[in-house]
Specification:
The complex is a heterodimer of chains A (240) and B (83). Chain A is an all-alpha fold. Chain A contains 7 helices and no strands. Chain A is globular. Chain B is an all-alpha fold and 83 residues long. The C terminus of chain B is likely disordered. Classes of the chains: A mainly alpha (240), B mainly alpha (83). At the A-B interface, helix 6 and helix 7 of A face helix 1, helix 2 and helix 3 of B.
């Protein structure tokens, strides 16, 4: 489905850069100019600039901007500590918090006309998921050494031939479900908004979907982070 | 109203992914079975690995379902023991 208007693509086209007209570009430069790539950079620049503007001088008595970040970062820190313990939180807080902020902003930005959600492309969500998936195995191997394999062997030695494939399949399914859940929800929101806008944009038909879109965006960002935290804590704890 | 909506977001976050997790496990099992049948054994063993993979996938789906329920059920107990 063609997006109606994407202003970054239009600006880049005016600058003479090749914009792919299909979903995937052919040359390296076209791949770099795909909308989900440019809007990923936009979200990153947005987060960096907003962080810089609001936190350039950190004070004892916080102002408006610092208060906002203290609320968000403090809330996330408490949530992670509650779910996966202090040690892991200290190590992994920057990564998971960055994922949370990035996914939340990337989801919500698609509601503004002229923008698209980078997370409505499977490439973005799969990249995030692969990072999480490898990290949770790395955490497992670092915490238990080679004994991490016990996580995949089930409770009773006799049941190993039955439990090993089941555990492996359910572990690989994490890769699929985590990426396609985020991608599917956000892509559905974007497509639905586009279709309703084309059909009856003059009668405010997309408005209810936009309200649902805010909910979906926040819930999906929360689900991704919650599942990341759960996977990390499961990999870190002893085999049941 | 505010409490209700935060609770709804929490419930959606905790349980809204059950359906997708279940389906993904079945598809991974089924896909693995089809791959073994068609590519690895060149279709000689045709329906068998597909069926075994499907069974394993369904079992893995139920296993991940129980995992979700167990982790969610374990949470309030932890809070009670602490407080």
């Amino acid at each position: 489905m063609e997006h109606p208007i994407l202003f970054i693509s239009i600006i880049l086209e005016k600058l003479g850069l090749p914009i792919p007209h299909g979903p995937v570009g052919n040359t390296f430069l076209e791949k770099l100019c795909e909308p989900y790539m440019t809007y990923t950079w936009f979200v990153m620049i947005f987060l960096v600039v907003v962080g810089k503007l609001t936190l350039s001088n950190v004070e004892m008595i916080p102002g408006k901007g610092q208060n906002f970040w203290e609320l968000i970062i403090g809330g996330m820190n408490d949530f992670f500590c509650e779910n996966m313990g202090k040690e892991l939180t200290e190590k992994l807080f920057p990564m998971i918090a960055t994922f949370a902020l990035y996914i939340a902003v990337a989801n919500i930005i698609g509601l503004i006309p002229g923008f698209m959600s980078p997370t409505s492309s499977i490439n973005t969500t799969l990249a995030l998921t692969v990072i999480v998936w490898f990290t949770h195995h790395v955490i497992g191997f670092r915490a238990h050494g080679i004994g991490y394999i016990k996580h995949f062997l089930g409770p009773i030695p006799i049941l190993i031939p039955l439990m090993l494939p089941i555990e492996l399949v359910s572990n690989i399914a994490r890769l699929l479900s985590l990426s396609i859940r985020l991608f599917g929800n956000i892509m559905a929101k974007e497509t639905l908004l586009g279709i309703l806008f084309l059909l009856a944009g003059g009668f405010f038909a997309p408005l209810p979907i936009m309200m649902l879109g805010v909910l979906v965006s926040l819930v999906q960002a929360m689900v991704f982070v919650l599942l990341t935290v759960v996977y990390f804590s499961q990999a870190n704890e002893h085999a049941h | 109203m505010a409490k209700l909506s935060t609770e709804m977001v929490h419930v959606l976050g905790n349980y809204g992914h059950i359906g997708f997790t279940f389906v993904a496990a079945i598809f991974v099992g089924l896909g693995g079975g089809i791959y073994l049948d068609e590519k690895f054994f060149d279709g000689k063993t045709s329906p068998w690995f597909t069926l075994i993979g499907l069974a394993i996938g369904i079992a893995a789906g139920f296993k991940s379902l129980f995992d979700i329920l167990r982790t969610q059920a374990a949470k309030p107990d932890d809070k009670d023991s602490e407080g």
